From TrEMBL:
Record flagged with keyword NAD: yes
Gene3D superfamilies in the cross-refs: FAD/NAD(P)-binding domain
PANTHER family: 3-(3-HYDROXY-PHENYL)PROPIONATE/3-HYDROXYCINNAMIC ACID HYDROXYLASE (PTHR43476), BLR0106 PROTEIN (PTHR43476:SF4)
Protein name per its UniProtKB record: 2-polyprenyl-6-methoxyphenol hydroxylase
Lineage, top ranks: Bacteria, Bacillati, Actinomycetota, Actinomycetes, Pseudonocardiales
Length: 414
């Protein structure tokens, strides 16, 4: 058994883990990052950065790695829907919300993780791919034991950063359980061949029992998502699932009936489906010798699309605390816990409203969307929660998070 010592050991090599490894090592800390995959492959994760998330990437110094891994700027967002004719769908210019950033990015998740991991390694971090069965011990002498190629290894560190995503492999070992709720299900697949789709335009809309999304990645490639009701969670499973998924983009609400998607798309990755869960931690996400970041620390419903942006905000705050303090006791992370609780409270609230508007189905839900669109067209202030996709949660006006606002919005659509 090998034993090594380091300042920080990071368990999980996704966006949060690679970003933390790159940032800490670039600022002089010794870092070991453990990732269970032997190589990065498409396992279908979030592939969209809000403009405020890209600002976090700039502050962490990983924005060039994201671009090198395939980051693609999306400039416009068109909200197609069954309640409006395609030519009447509203289009939003997304390039002006955060100065110096531009629009959000679409990208292949696995390629960008690989790019950031390479930057971390070049900065001096030890990147271990294929690390299996990580056993975490927090407390005054933190350590992680893992297996690599059949051999047992131990890393002793001053701090463990848990960044294993929704699987929560570190959180469970340090005693953090999650309160979960599921509003709907989702699925996604990466495709190429969308040569007739405008690569600077993302789509979102609802038709029938489908909330559909198209996030371009450049050169005719895109990630396609569909959210659907829980009673239909087996729709895309089994033989022919990919074909059924793509066929569901035959949509009257799109300008060409969706032909530029369903008839042209060629899958270049797996199809995955999942329950769209909200996770809220029931215990503190910081303990002696360990701290959780990203989805492992809790998240909002994926319909909001802010998971990766949140992960980078977590990483920046936690890493700055580590870099600026010699004392790494749990008390020093209080600013992180306070900021994160405020941020997640707003994001969970906003996601619940957007899910009710976009990911509920049937005649009543359709009429609710129709009337909500009319209210928002007459009073742009009613669109306030849509800002969560563009600007940091703390910059969204307070009134958007009041029960009175939501009650008024839904009462007027009733």
């Amino acid at each position: 058994m090998s034993v090594e010592d380091t300042d920080v050991v990071i368990v999980g090599g996704g966006f949060a883990g690679t970003a933390a490894a790159a940032y800490l090592s670039a600022n002089g800390m010794s870092v070991v990052m453990l990732e269970k995959q032997e190589r990065y492959t498409d396992i279908v994760r979030g592939e969209w950065f809000a403009p405020w998330g890209m600002r976090e990437a700039q502050l962490l110094g990983i924005d060039e790695a994201i671009a090198f891994g395939g980051g693609w700027e999306i400039r416009e967002w068109t909200q197609w829907d069954e309640v409006v004719a395609p030519h009447e769908a509203e289009t939003v210019d997304m390039t002006h919300f955060i100065p110096g950033v531009g629009g959000p990015l679409g990208f292949p998740h696995h390629q960008v993780c690989e790019s950031i991991a390479q930057q971390a390694a070049e900065s001096g971090a030890k990147v271990v791919m294929g690390a299996q069965r990580c056993e975490v011990t927090a407390g005054p002498e933190p350590q992680v034991r893992y297996r690599l190629g059949g051999e047992l290894h131990t890393v002793r560190a001053r701090m463990i950063i848990g960044a294993t995503g929704r699987g929560g492999r570190v959180g469970r070992q340090i005693g953090v359980s999650m309160r979960t709720s599921v509003h709907h299900w989702g699925g996604g697949v990466r495709v190429e061949g969308l040569d007739d789709w405008p690569m600077d335009v993302q789509a979102m809309g609802t038709e029938g029992e489908r909330n559909f999304m198209v996030f371009p990645q450049g050169d005719g490639r895109a990630r396609l998502y569909i959210n659907f009701p829980t009673h239909n969670k087996h729709r895309y499973r089994g033989e022919g699932g990919v074909e059924r998924f793509l066929a569901d983009f035959e949509l009257e609400s799109l300008p060409d009936g969706g032909k530029s998607v369903y008839a042209a798309a060629k899958p270049i990755g797996p199809l995955q489906v999942w329950p769209s869960m909200t996770l809220r931690p029931e215990q503190p996400i910081v303990t002696e010798g360990a701290v959780l970041v990203g989805d492992e620390a809790g998240n909002a419903d994926t319909v909001l699309g802010t998971g990766l942006s949140c992960a980078l905000r977590d990483v920046r705050i936690v890493c700055d605390i580590l870099l600026n303090n010699s004392d790494w006791s749990p008390e020093v992370f209080e600013p992180y816990l306070t900021e994160r609780e405020f941020r997640m409270r707003r994001l969970v609230f906003g996601a619940s409203v957007i899910s009710k508007l976009q990911c509920e189905f049937g005649p009543e839900a359709t009429e609710r969307r129709r009337r909500a669109r009319r209210i928002m067209a007459e009073n742009p202030a009613a669109q306030v929660l849509g800002l969560l996709n563009m600007v940091p949660p703390e910059q969204v006006p307070e009134f958007g998070f009041s029960e009175f606002f939501v009650e008024r919005l839904f009462r007027e659509t009733a």
